[in-house]
Design brief:
The protein is an alpha+beta fold. The chain has four helices and five strands.
């Protein structure tokens, strides 16, 4: 009897556990990043900065590497590469123009921790996308690590 029970139990592969771990890490990193961005929006100092394209392309390629430069209230010049995608910056305006003005939020004590604030907080679209990707990956990992099969029974809804 005990031998039959062990053969019925499903072995959990290393790939299933890794999928669950990767999905959970994506969710965790995205949530921490989102909390930091929200805190910057609430407690950060607002200023304007210049957005420029610093990419060096060869051939007929179109490439984009945004760089934001701003001056703190103490007069220190700061330059950083925003983690906001070009698509989001294009929605906010024409990102290919050199010297374009953008809103920047930064911590006064640590000005290197800064972010670009775009209209209607569109920068959070990327964070929502990564959270959904993490949820899907974690769900597949969870399903693969379950001992029992997942059964969807929709017959109870019809009466």
């Amino acid at each position: 009897m005990e031998n039959a029970r062990t053969t019925e139990e499903k072995k959990i592969s290393i790939w299933a556990r890794l999928t669950l771990l990767v999905g959970s890490l994506i969710i965790l990193i995205t949530c921490v990043s989102t909390m930091g961005a929200i805190y910057l929006d609430l407690a950060g100092v607002k200023t304007s900065g210049a957005l420029s394209n610093v990419a060096k392309c060869s051939g007929a390629k179109t490439c984009w590497t945004g760089k934001v430069e701003f001056t703190t209230s103490a007069g220190k010049e700061i330059a950083f590469y925003p983690k906001t995608s070009r698509f989001i910056l294009d929605l906010d305006g024409y990102a290919s123009e050199s010297g374009r003005e953008v809103d920047v939020r930064y911590f006064e004590t640590l000005p290197m921790l800064a972010k670009v604030s775009v209209a209607y907080h569109l920068e959070y679209f990327n964070k929502i996308t990564w959270t959904l990707i993490g949820l899907v990956v974690a769900f597949f990992g969870w399903v693969a690590t379950r001992k029992r099969a997942v059964v969807l029974d929709f017959s109870k809804g019809k009466k």
